[in-house]
Amino acid sequence: MKKIVSTGALAVLFSFAGVTTPALADADDIVIDGAWARASIGMNRPGAAYMTIRNTGAEPVTLTGLSTSLAMMPAIHETRTSAEGVSSMTPTDEITIAPGESMALEPGGLHAMLLQLQEPMVEGETLPLTLIFEDGGEATVDVSILGFAARRLED
Ligand SMILES: [Cu+2]
């Protein structure tokens, strides 16, 4: 199990005071499973992180951004492969996850691109990645850094 840290404390504070804050409560409904990344070779090439994001709440949630101390420009990307077998990546501004649904970030599809690495991604270490949602809620996950050739998180 990966540790999930969210801004839930703030929402709890507000609900304790009797004020409903549906906006910020959304991130509490997010469960992130199996976050992993490949070790980087130095810092010249960008890294990528993968995970499953689950919306356990009753409202849709929209992921709009990423933040990490490890990379200057983290971004949501999608890899598409054409009928001719040519792969290309395009930035994706937002991902909306319906209630009860999950979204997989995986090699060959959506991924968290870590552009402009500030330090190498070292196998066996973890990197903190914060997911930022449209309503201002955030969820931070520790991403396990696997070997250079990893294709998926080991069970
Ligand atoms: Cu990418």
UniProtKB/TrEMBL annotation:
It comes from the Bacteria. It holds the Pfam family PCuAC. Keywords: Signal. Residues 1-25 form the signal peptide. This is Copper chaperone PCu(A)C.
